[in-house]
Write a structure and sequence with these properties.
It contains 23 helices and 15 strands. By secondary structure, the protein is α/β, with parallel strands linked by helices. A hairpin with a 3-residue loop joins strand 7 and strand 8. Helix 19 crosses helix 23.
C-alpha cells in the first residue's frame, strides 16, 4: 500500500466503494435524444426568492418541452443558515405555480433512482470520491488554523497579492503523505482541499449557453472540498451531484460565472463529463436611477410569497418572468393571447443576456390582462382559492351567494375587449363589497363625498328623477338614452359643449348627474358600468339606497 493509499484509508476507513461502483449505481439515463436533465437546487435558508422562481421556471420549462427530467435537490450543507421548514415551504410555493419536480426531494419523501436528493444524506458519495482523489494526489488534508489563514490574508493584502490559498501559500500541499499521516495521528484538526494545477496566467475559452463564447481565467485556488464538520462545500458537492444524477444542463445566476474555472477544473481532473452551463442574468431593480440587484432585505417583491399573499394569478407572474427570459416571448404572446404559456418554446439564442429590471407596472398590466380573460366561473374559483387562504372577508361574500358574486365579476367580461377592473385578488373585496346591502350600509355610516358644487337639493332632484324611470327592463343603450332625457329635463346638459354654449340654462352635464347616482349606489366616484350595477342591485335595493340619501 502506498503512502497516499494509507492516508486515504486513515481519513476514510469506512468507505469501501469506489467511483466505479458509483458509476454502476447511477448509470446514464435512458431518455429521448435531446432530453434535458436539469435541477433546481435551493438551500433551505428562507423564503423562495423571485430570482429563484425565475431560474426554476426556466429549468422546469426546458425539461418539460424536451421530455427530460426536472429535479429538485436540497443543498443543506450550510447548517448555520438553515431555517427549519423552509425546504417544504419552497416546494409548496413552487407548486402554486404548477412547477413540480419530475423527481427529487418532495418534503416528506423522495422520488427517483438517483438519490438521495438531500445533500446531507449523500456523505458516503462525497467521501468515496474524495478518498479516490486523495489516492490520486488530487486532494490532501490541510492543517492551517483560522489564525494562520487570517495572517496569510493580511500578508497578501499588504503585498498586493491575489488573495487565497494557492501556489507557495498552499503550505499543506507541500507535506508528504507520511507527514500528513503523522499530523492526523497526532490529533491535529484538518480539512480537505483540492490540489489545483491551474495558473491565473492561463485563460479558458468556454461556450456558455446564454452568454455565448466567454473567456475566463484558469483556477489556481486550492479550494476546500470537505469542511471540518465533515460536510462538503458547494463547489465540490454540486460536482458529484450533477455527475451522478446525470445532469445535462446547469442553469444558474450569472454571479456564479466567476466560479466556473473551479468547476471546470474539478470535472476535468476527475474525468467527469462537463454539463452544459448557462448563466442567467440577475434580476435588477431601479433604485432612484441606479440599478441594483433585487434585494431580500429591501424589496417586498423579492419574495415570491408577496405575490401569493397579494393574490396575483400565477399565470401573470410566470408570463412576466417569461418576458425577462426570452426576448421573443411578448411577440409570441400577442399572436397567442389565450394559449397556455407552456406552448411557448425557450431558445438559448433568445435569452436576455443583461440583467432585466423588475417592473411592477408591467406585472400589474399582465395580471389585469390574464384576469379579464377568465370566465366568471374560472375567476370565482381562483378568488375562492385565494380567499380560503388569505381573505376571510372575501370568502364570506363568495360563500354567501356564489351566483350573485359571479354576476358582479362578470360585468362586461364576456366580450371582445373585456373590462380590466381587477389587478389581483386582494383588490376584489374592496371593489365588490358595495354590491352587498350590509356592506353598503357600513360605507354609508362612514359618509359619502359628493361634488362640493352640488347642493343637497341638486342631489335629491337627480335621485328622485332617476327613480321615476329606472328603465331596468331596457337594454344598455336605451337605458342610457332614457337617463339622458330624464336628467336633461331637470337641467343637465347632454355634453360639455351644450353646457358651454348655454351656461345659464344648465346645472351641469349628464356626467355630473351620473356621478351623483354612482356615489349614491356605490359610495365612490368610480365603479363598473352603472347600467350593470343597477341591473345587479335591482329596483328594491336601488330605491332603498336612494331613499337613505334623500332622507
Amino acid at each position: 500500500m502506498t503512502d497516499l493509499e494509507r492516508l486515504a484509508e486513515l481519513i476514510f476507513p469506512n468507505i469501501t466503494e469506489t467511483i466505479e461502483d458509483l458509476e454502476k449505481r447511477y448509470p446514464e439515463r435512458n431518455l429521448p435524444e435531446g432530453a434535458i436533465v436539469d435541477r433546481f437546487a435551493p438551500s433551505p435558508t428562507g423564503f423562495l426568492h423571485s430570482g429563484s422562481l425565475f431560474t426554476a421556471m426556466i429549468q422546469w420549462h426546458l425539461a418539460l418541452k424536451s421530455k427530460g427530467v426536472f429535479m429538485l435537490r436540497l443543498e443543506d450543507t450550510d447548517t448555520k443558515r438553515e431555517v427549519e421548514g423552509s425546504g417544504e415551504r419552497l416546494l409548496k410555493e413552487l407548486a402554486k405555480f404548477d412547477i413540480v419536480p419530475t423527481e427529487g426531494y418532495f418534503g416528506d419523501h423522495e422520488e427517483g433512482s438517483y438519490g438521495p436528493y438531500v445533500q446531507s444524506k449523500r456523505s458516503s458519495i462525497y467521501n468515496t470520491v474524495i478518498k479516490e482523489m486523495i489516492k490520486r494526489g488530487d486532494a490532501y488534508p490541510a492543517f492551517e488554523s483560522e489564525e494562520e489563514l487570517n495572517e496569510l490574508r493580511k500578508y497578501q493584502e499588504v503585498h498586493k497579492l491575489n488573495p487565497g490559498y494557492y501556489g507557495e501559500f498552499a503550505k499543506s500541499s507541500f507535506l508528504t503523505p507520511a507527514q500528513a499521516i503523522e499530523k492526523i495521528e497526532a490529533g491535529e484538526p484538518y480539512i480537505i482541499r483540492f490540489r489545483s494545477k491551474g495558473s491565473n496566467k492561463n485563460k479558458i475559452h468556454f461556450h456558455d449557453l446564454i452568454k455565448g463564447d466567454v473567456e475566463v481565467t484558469e483556477n489556481e485556488q486550492h479550494i476546500v472540498i470537505l469542511k471540518s464538520d465533515g460536510l462538503p462545500t458547494y463547489h465540490f458537492a454540486h460536482l458529484c451531484d450533477d455527475h451522478f444524477m446525470r445532469t445535462t444542463h446547469v442553469l444558474r445566476g450569472e454571479e456564479w460565472l466567476s466560479s466556473l474555472p473551479i468547476h471546470i477544473e474539478l470535472f476535468t481532473r476527475l474525468g467527469f463529463k462537463l454539463p452544459n452551463y448557462g448563466h442567467l442574468p440577475v434580476i435588477m431593480k431601479n433604485d432612484e436611477g441606479k440599478r441594483r440587484k433585487l434585494s431580500k432585505r429591501l424589496d417586498k417583491e423579492a419574495a415570491v410569497s408577496f405575490f401569493l399573499e397579494s393574490g396575483y394569478p400565477k399565470s401573470a407572474i410566470l408570463e412576466y418572468l417569461f418576458t425577462l427570459a426570452n426576448s421573443n416571448f411578448e411577440e409570441w404572446r400577442l399572436e397567442n393571447m389565450d394559449a397556455d404559456i407552456r406552448d411557448f418554446t425557450f431558445t438559448f439564442e433568445k435569452f436576455n443576456k443583461d440583467g432585466a429590471l423588475f417592473d411592477m407596472d408591467k406585472i400589474n398590466d399582465i395580471s389585469k390582462e390574464r384576469l379579464c380573460r377568465l370566465t366568471k366561473s374560472e375567476f370565482t374559483d381562483m378568488a375562492l382559492a385565494y380567499a380560503k387562504e388569505y381573505d376571510s372577508n372575501l370568502l364570506e361574500l363568495i360563500n354567501r351567494d356564489r351566483a350573485y358574486f359571479e354576476s358582479i365579476v362578470n360585468i362586461e367580461r364576456e366580450k371582445e375587449n373585456p373590462r380590466k377592473d381587477y389587478t389581483k385578488f386582494s383588490d376584489v373585496y374592496e371593489f365588490v363589497k358595495f354590491f352587498y346591502s350590509d356592506k353598503y350600509d357600513e360605507l354609508f355610516a362612514q359618509g359619502f363625498e359628493y361634488n362640493e358644487s352640488k347642493t343637497k337639493e341638486d342631489i335629491k332632484k337627480v335621485l328622485s328623477k332617476h327613480l321615476e324611470s329606472l328603465g331596468l327592463e331596457l337594454d344598455e343603450q336605451e337605458w342610457f338614452n332614457n337617463m339622458k332625457e330624464a336628467m336633461h329635463s331637470i337641467g343637465y346638459a347632454v355634453n360639455k359643449k351644450e353646457l358651454r354654449d348655454n351656461p345659464d340654462e344648465f346645472i351641469g352635464t349628464i356626467g355630473d348627474a351620473s356621478e351623483i347616482i354612482r356615489i349614491t349606489l356605490c359610495g365612490r366616484k368610480s365603479s363598473p358600468n352603472l347600467y350593470y350595477v343597477e341591473k345587479i342591485l335591482g329596483k328594491d335595493e336601488i330605491e332603498r339606497r336612494f331613499n337613505k340619501i334623500i332622507k
